[in-house]
TrEMBL record:
Molecular functions per Gene Ontology: FMN binding; oxidoreductase activity, acting on CH-OH group of donors
CC cofactor: FMN
Source species of the chain: Streptomyces yokosukanensis
Listed InterPro entries: Aldolase_TIM (IPR013785), Alpha-hydoxy_acid_DH_FMN (IPR012133), FMN-dep_DH (IPR000262), FMN_HAD (IPR037396), FMN_hydac_DH_AS (IPR008259)
Name of the protein in question: 2-hydroxy-acid oxidase
Keywords: Flavoprotein, FMN, Oxidoreductase
Length: 375
């Protein structure tokens, strides 16, 4: 696929100046049930709301008179260079948002020079997405069939994925009330491209008071996933191993002992255990627990360059960004994704300068105040 430029996206006659502008555009464009599928959380959505509130509760203590002319947002993520301390989070069924789905999203990530994480349940196959030329990581769910797990790992290796990200917080899909009320099911033209034919038909079968997507994952995923299984995965590949879904520092320590190259502090964007701790709140504990033995990334609620700076100041090496990418994708395909990432880069550059930080290393020395406590 030819690379497209990050052309400006016109939302309701005005140029977007932050990612929230694209959120409003996406909400207006998408069918209500599809919007609920990407925007909703589990249960009462208390964790979904808490993620944003917790990020807003982190106040940064800027340095002054730093004499900086230009800031550098470049990062090293799992040994590879990226223009931002950011990767596009793994997200399912992106053709729901745009006909080119993951192909367009990966193209936007390529334009922004950041890694794109391919979901196990993407609507384009690993092989198709690899043709875009973006830096790819592959996200793996633990399946009932170990043979399929090995097959997916080998396919990721063969197409040149640079990391394997194992999601560990989905023994079952969280109870997402919006999807249950909508009796959400995938349209016939959306497929689980990496998993066919194993149970994928269940995702298309609408049932009263049920989510067909949840029914499909129940068939495909194995809820008994344990540490010994993760150790087995580590033995199957030499790719850098990223463990996504860590909140407790004890789990972070165990992940390091099993050979993790990075952990992602994440509550799955508020879509799994409702009432779980906000990711930004757990982040400093995890950073302390791993003691520099692996990289630490964070996701859930990141919406601005200031949020990225908050995560860096609390010890993260970078962040994953999810829903904002989908907003850009639904609004304008690859250029929309590129614009979301460009806005985040502009905001981070400005936030670094205003905080007196020339680069990401300096950002990690910033002090922060949470809920009025002294720095």
């Amino acid at each position: 696929m030819a690379q497209q430029s990050a052309a400006p996206v016109d939302t309701a006659g005005t140029q977007p100046v932050c990612v929230k502008d694209l959120q409003q555009s996406a909400a207006a464009r998408l069918a209500p049930a599809v919007w609920d599928f990407i925007a909703g959380g589990s249960g009462t959505e208390s964790t979904l709301d808490a993620n944003r509130a917790a990020l807003d509760s982190v106040s940064l203590v800027p340095r002054v008179l730093a004499g900086i002319k230009k800031t550098d947002t470049g990062a090293q993520l799992l040994g590879a260079s990226a223009a931002l301390p950011l990767a596009v989070a793994p997200m399912a069924y992106q053709r729901l948002l745009h006909p080119e789905g993951e192909l367009a999203a990966a193209e936007g990530a390529l334009a922004a020079q950041v890694p794109f994480v391919v979901s196990t349940i993407s609507s384009h196959s690993l092989e198709e997405i690899a043709t875009v030329g973006a830096t790819l990581w592959f996200q793996l769910y633990w399946l009932h069939d170990r043979g399929r797990v090995v097959e997916l790992i080998r396919r990721a290796e063969q197409v040149g994925c640079q990391a394997l990200m194992v999601t560990v917080d989905v023994p079952i899909m969280g109870r997402r009330l919006r999807d249950l009320r909508n009796e959400f099911a995938l349209p016939s033209w959306i497929r689980s491209a990496n998993l066919e034919p194993d149970g994928s038909s269940a995702a298309h079968s609408r049932r009263p008071g049920e989510s067909a997507v949840a029914a499909h994952t129940k068939i495909a995923f194995d809820s008994t996933f344990g540490w010994s299984d993760l150790e087995w995965i580590r033995e199957q590949t030499r790719l850098p191993l990223v463990i996504k879904g860590i909140l407790d520092p004890r789990d972070a320590e165990q992940a390091v002992r099993l050979g993790a190259d990075a952990v992602v502090v994440s509550n799955h964007g508020g879509r799994q255990l409702d009432g779980a701790l906000p990711s930004i709140t757990a982040l400093p504990w995890v950073v302390e627990a791993v003691g520099g033995q692996c990289q630490v990334l964070m996701d859930s609620g990141v919406r601005s360059g200031t949020d990225i700076l908050r995560a860096l100041a609390l010890g993260a090496d970078g962040v994953l960004v999810g829903r904002p990418v989908l907003w850009g994708l639904s609004t304008a395909g690859a250029p929309g994704v590129a614009q979301v990432l460009s806005l985040l880069r502009t905001e981070l550059e400005e936030a670094l300068l205003l905080a007196g930080c020339a680069d990401l290393a300096a950002a990690r020395t910033l002090r922060s105040v949470v809920s009025g406590m002294r720095p």
